[in-house]
Amino acid sequence: MDQGRQVFTVDLLERYAAKGKGVITCMAAGNDVIVIGTSKGWVIRHDFGVGDSFDIDLSVGRPGEQSIHRVFVDPGGSHCIATVVGSGGAETYYTHAKWTKPRVLSKLKGLVVNAVAWNRQQITEASTKEVILGAENGQLHEIAVDEKDKREKYIKFLFQLTELPEAFMGLQMETANLTNGTRYYVMAVTPTRLYSFTGIGTLETVFASYLDRAVHFMELPGEIPNSELHFFIKQRRAVHFAWLSGTGIYHGGLNFGAQHSYPNGDENFVENKALLDYSKLSEGAEAIKPSSMAVSEFHFLLLIGNKVKVVNRISEQIIEELQFDQTSESVSRDIIGLCIDATAGLFYAYDQNSIFQVSVNDEGRDMWKVYLDMKEYTAALANCRDPLQRDQVYLLQADAAFASRDFLRAASFYAKVNYILSFEEITLKFISASEQDALRTFLLRKLDNLTKDDKCQITMISTWATELYLDKINRLLLEEESASENHSSEYQSVIQEFRAFLSDSKDVLDEATTMRLLESYGRVEELVYFASLKEQYEIVIHHYIQQGEAKRALEVLQKPAVPIDLQYKFAPDLIALDAYETVESWMATKNLNPRKLIPAMMRYSSEPHAKNETHEVIKYLEFCVHQLHNEDPGIHNLLLSLYAKQEDDGALLRFLQCKFGKGRENGPDFFYDPKYALRLCLKEKRMRACVHIYSMMAMHEEAVALALQVDPELAMAEADKVEDDEDLRKKLWLMVAKHVIEQEKGTKRENIRKAIAFLKETDGLLKIEDILPFFPDFALIDDFKEAICSSLEDYNKQIEQLKQEMNDATHGADNIRNDISALAQRYAVIDRDEECGVCKRKILTVAADYRFSRGYTSAGPMAPFYVFPCGHSFHAQCLIAHVTRCTNETQAEYILDLHKQLTLLGDGSRKDLNGSIAEDSISSTTPADKLRSQLDDAIASECPFCGELMINEISLPFILPEESQEVSSWEIKPHNLGNQRTLSLQV
């Protein structure tokens, strides 16, 4: 212990606390309240919290000398119980902090109360709740007082000691709330025994249960003037207890909540029991028993004579002796006793006149060392205050383990030491002892204790641990017994541990250094594993390919983080290793560019394969073309070349006939190169494919010529494909006919019959005269008699049909001529009240009202006008004005120009007296007639109200741009609102 620092200090609190009312006989404290009893029957209360004190005389009305035997205060400092002993017997009083007069507990008359147990969990300022009183005659009583009632609620008898009737000297009570009620724990001491009571219900029922069962007690021999029982309270709960007995201090921990401690009703709720013998306090001299005791968290305060010895509860060593500054008149008298204020955490000592305060200054500061000296390392660590203290605990554990050759355990403890022993010193310990495994363990534990900021240290230690792992693996391999099962399992265990370490340390290990280490030790599998962790996928894939594990390499390539370029790089090796798995992987991979795989596919295709083997490249190319709709010419050309090399040309022909661009606007029907396809098919002698390509390239003559070498039926089909060019189609059929006639062998009549049958297949395109030149000169005309007659009959039918068509045309021309003649005589009836559609004036008005009548044919004095079949009528000048206004500018200028020219020519026209046009003018065609006809076509081709002109007016605005003045006249302009009144309407 550090003797330079005092844990407990003593200060004089009150010199003359009895105030001349006798001497102090007893004392109690709680919540900064001190209550003392005097030899003259006075109870003096000092409330240091509010700085107040008052006196109560309990000897009033009692004859003779009276003295306060015991005084008790609850932890809150509100409730006080005092027992007066005198010639008239003993009486017990209760008083409250707010009362001016005490209340005598009449039912306890004659009983000397030595101990009181307060219900700390439930007591309040207004009510004591249950309180247990221990009497001199071995009885226990229960009382309860409410401050507002000014008297006790009840006083009940609880228990009586019968086996050994001794006085109760100390009482303590604790409660715990359970689901089925409140459990009471009561501990009581007599001069020789410590009793334990517990039960659920009320205090009355708990103690009543002991009528049928034995009381649990602990008995110690020896005699002591004053037996005491103390609980140490921490956060309002009792933690441990101490009993000042005749033999020593019996103490231990309290576990009120552990019901497993008493499954069968056992009242022993004490744990870690121990006895401090008084002989340990005398240092060889005769043991002196303390006269009083107080309990702190880690210490006992024992009053021996005029001194207080402070004893550590754990080590049982005296750490301090406290001296009291007494007055000259009281030096000859000893300190009477000690008392505890558990609420304020203070201790008090008192003699006949004075009160002393004992303060605690961080009593747990050296407890770590106490536990460490006792080798209780867990408790020592729990009481350490700083890293240096923890280092000492870890170092002592590590040294002990190292000395016992438990190197792995020592390594774990050494790794926790940060300050008092350097990293180098610790590692040298293990290196000197040739303990590589322990050194590795130390490094790994050290890594766990380092923070993320120590990047350099973490990297270096991790690299060293890697090398130690590799060394361990090699040593296991080199051992002679490595083949045995035990060593094999150890080897596998180390491998798994090493891989787990690599996985955990992948972000802190230097990549290049680690790979060199793994390579130098020949650990290829671990190198691949680490490369995979560091996303060095190229190394991983290369390794798998070398091992022939294409499937595992493809699994790596399928990972999202793997660059797509590695797919192209390793494609040749993978497809050669396992074509099926590789192609399946390609088809499952998105964003793969098939064009970059062409070299790998061509290399694979160039190798020999079994005839019945599924060509994996063709499968992938078909997937690209049909599923992915790939348009790359290279892909299509490669697929075409592979089809061309197959024995069966069915797939090739289907590919050539497939329109891959179908449905696309302005898209091609195919994406392969037709010239390359033609060369390839000619080289591979795929003649049907060549015919199709010729036809596709519009080289029909070449297609038919080549088809004739393969199959005449194919040639006929090709000849039939030409539909838009009749001459070419006929030429192609002639080629077919010539080939058929030349190829036919047999009798002459048989050849001619087949030739006639071929003519029928052409659907009349070829005649007998077209194929006659192909027959030899010595063929007899009689052999073609039937065909020639049939041809002549066809010609005759065509001539008759042409005659009929000519007659129909002549009849139609006559009808048209008659319609033209009738059209010249057509007229319309105008009502005399008919109005012009534009000016709304009558149509039959005098021509003098209009200025633009010259150049028009007028009927007498009437103005020229137009009448449409729909019934609308318009003056000529109104119609011109309306049409020019509604039509576009170019058309309007054209109409006005025609009208102007017609007007200028109108003066020279010949008219009769009544304004009618001469008859010869009807038949003659003059410039004025042409102009008038053009003007009629421009303005009167359709009614302006019923035709397209009216429909176009739908898109015109209601107000034209030139009518801006009209728009402004409709605008709403703001007026002066200054003189306007605002009316507020009540809603």
> What portion of residues is helical?
25-40%
Radius of gyration from the alpha-carbon trace, in angstroms: 64 Å
**Count of DSSP helices?**
33
Record field, number of beta strands: 30
| Low-confidence sequence ranges | 260-266, 849-854, 908-923, 979-987
Helix-strand category:
alpha+beta
Q: What is the terminal separation in angstroms?
A: 91 Å
So what's the overall shape?
elongated
Strand order of the largest sheet: 1-28-27-26
Major sheet: size, sense and barrel closure?
A: 4 strands, antiparallel
Mean pLDDT over the full residue set: 81
Please state roughly what percent of the residues sit in beta strands, choosing from under 5%, 5-15%, 15-25%, 25-35%, 35-45% or over 45%.
Answer: 15-25%
Describe this structure in words.
The chain is of the alpha+beta class and 987 residues long. Helices cover 39% and strands 19% of the residues. A hairpin with a 5-residue loop joins strand 29 and strand 30 (873-875). The longest helix has 40 residues, at 785-824. Residues 260-266, 849-854, 908-923 and 979-987 have low confidence and may be disordered.
